[in-house]
Design brief:
Elements lengths: L13 H8 L7 H11 L3 H13 L4 H14 L3 H13 L7 H16 L3 H14 L4 H13 L3 H14 L4 H13 L3 H15 L5 H10 L3 H14 L3 H14 L2 H15 L3 H14 L2 H13 L3 H17 L3 H14 L4 H11 L2
């Protein structure tokens, strides 16, 4: 799981519903234009649209919600919190899906800003009204373990999976967060429980992913290869390639990515993985070519990873000056990346 993106896509599609159903009766022209800018990560333009929408009398709750999302994109988490609180203050007292959606975003802004306690409290407020929200338990567990409250986190994780037993991705996400905080063995238990409890109903894709995180790469390849034969798509190909990478067969993994790009069209995420394979084999120019193709697609979900790997490629090539310049630009866009900050100090000495 990527914590940098936690809960942002939680209620995908809600934006359009909100614009259509919860407005003040006036056309939400500026609101929709701003949301379009958010889709392309043009956050300053989005905020300009939202200001214009406010001046035009468009729905303030939706506008403040949208501003909060834009501020999260700009990593201005304090401003995001203020915007979401302003959105909630516009509520007339009747709770709808919109208010729950805003609270999830509010918790995200708190979490990303390092205020784990406020994130925890926000999820608790959601659960007080919706005690069967598995996602809220799971996310509250992340907030708890981020504060060092292991037992509370495990309790929330257990509650989350009990409410959504067939959500095998959640088992994996719980493993990943426990592993991040040094509880890998405990995280493995969730994977083992998922495999034993759901082996009959689980798809080959789900079995393959769980085997991968259990370190059983051979079976992961087998299951994911079966899933790919049944239904080739970007997600399955990414997982299949990673499984082969984990076995050490990087060249075969690269061939899987190349085959997908040739037969099914471009994918920024697959270009990124292909670049990783080329880096591993020492073909740095081919890695740069793949990474450049991915960057050109302007997919914000993987842009940060692509930009970082581009720096790594130049570093491996010995072009430290170019890598240093790119790292300065990278840190301007992603200032909270501690790994990149350490790498920048190294590059400055070369």
């Amino acid at each position: 799981m990527n914590l940098r993106k936690m809960t942002i896509p939680l209620l995908a599609g809600f934006v359009l519903f909100s614009c259509a159903a919860c407005g003040s009766g006036k056309k939400s022209t500026n609101l929709q234009a701003g949301m379009d800018y958010i889709e392309s990560a043009e956050y300053d333009n989005a905020l300009t649209c939202f200001d214009a929408g406010e001046a035009a009398g468009e729905d303030r709750e939706l506008l403040y919600r949208a501003k909060g999302i834009a501020y999260i994109g700009k990593m201005q988490y304090g401003d995001a919190v203020d915007a979401f609180l302003a959105a909630l203050s516009c509520c007339d007292g009747t709770l709808t899906s919109l208010e729950y959606d805003i609270n999830y975003y509010l918790a995200t802004a708190y979490y990303k800003g390092g205020d784990y306690l406020s994130a925890f409290d926000t999820y608790s407020a959601i659960l007080a009204l919706k005690p069967k929200e598995a996602q809220a338990y799971y996310l509250r567990g992340i907030s708890a373990i981020s504060m060092g409250y292991h037992d509370q986190a495990v309790s929330d994780f257990d509650r989350a999976v009990s409410l959504n037993k067939d959500n095998y991705s959640m088992y994996i996400d719980i493993y990943l967060i426990l592993d991040k905080y040094g509880f890998s063995q405990e995280g493995q238990t969730y994977l083992e429980n998922a495999m034993s409890a759901g082996s009959r109903s689980m798809s080959d894709y789900e079995k393959g992913r769980i085997c991968y995180y259990m370190g059983d790469y051979e079976n992961a390849c087998t299951y994911l290869d079966n899933a790919n034969k049944a239904n080739t798509n970007e997600t399955i190909v990414l997982e299949l390639g990673k499984a082969y990478e984990a076995t050490g067969d990087v060249n075969f993994a690269a061939s899987i990515y190349v085959n997908y790009l040739s037969n099914y069209g471009e994918s920024a995420a697959i270009y990124n993985q292909l670049g990783n394979c080329k880096l591993a084999t020492g073909d740095y120019q081919a890695a740069l070519d793949a990474i450049a193709s991915g960057i050109a697609m302007n997919n914000m979900d993987v842009m940060q990873t692509l930009k970082y790997n581009e720096i790594v490629a130049y570093e491996y090539m010995g072009d430290f000056k170019k890598a240093c310049v790119l790292m300065e630009n990278y840190l301007a866009a992603y200032p909270d990346d501690e790994r990149a900050q350490r790498e920048y100090e190294f590059l400055r000495t070369r």
